[in-house]
Every structure is written in C-alpha cells, then in structure tokens.
Predict the 3D structure of the following.
Amino acid sequence: MQLYLPRAYNETMKDIEKTAALALRETGRHLTRQRRLIVEALSSSEGHFTAEEIYDSVRSRLPRLNVSTVYRTLEALKKLGLVNETDLGGGRLSYHLAEKGHHHHLICQGCGQVSEMDEAVLEPLKRALGRKHGFRADLRHLAIFGWCSRCSRKDQAA
C-alpha cells in the first residue's frame, strides 16, 4: 500500500534531507538510507521520541537496522544542531528536529503530565544569569520538573 503524503510534506522532507546531507557531508559523513529514514521518522511526526521509539518506527522498513545506529545518528545530528535532545524524565532522552523550533516543558512529578511553556517566561532568568554571573544561557529546550495544579491541590488536601 502506498502512503499518501501531501506535496508540502514531500517538499519539506526534501529540504530536511538536503540540510542533513549537507551538514553530514561537511563532517565527512553521508546521508545513508538508515540516516535518511531516522530523519524522516523524526520529521513525519509531532512531539518527542526516544531512540527506541525511532528504532521501532524505522525497523519496520529496515529490519536489519541496529539500535546503536539510531543512537549514533541522533548523536551526530545533535552535534550538527539538527536535532534537540531533552530529558523529559523516566530515565530516557527524547529527540525532535531542531527546525521544529525550541520550546520548553513543565513536567509533573506526580502524574507525569507534560505541558508546553511559553518561552517569554524564561527571558528574565536569561537576563539575570547574564547580569549576575556573566553567563550566556542557552535555553533553547528546557524541561522543568515540579507538580501540576491538580497534583498540588491533592497534596495540600492530604
């Protein structure tokens, strides 16, 4: 069965593949079929994915793929600035394409709920770090752990 993908998706995918191919070539690597399928898995879905989830997705099309190839590819793409890596808890790192923009997460330690947070909230922190410590913070992708309002209310009621 042929999967129908809208033309805009196909054009976007080609742009992402070109960017990845150029960046990899600059470091002496190539956009192999395995790497192309990993990039495609990241770009064809919304959200964040663990290396294992990407592996499961790509393995259906490339059964001989090794999970270590996925980890090495994600690390290379991260170093090239093409992929962002975030610790969303649970002991596993999550990944998404950097071109999908930077955003931040609030992660509830009670129920596990993950919410996105407006980047403007972090601007005062970024300025304060620069002013007080001479530190230029890179706050492109951040996860903040705490308790959501529902879990906070439960805790106060107990």
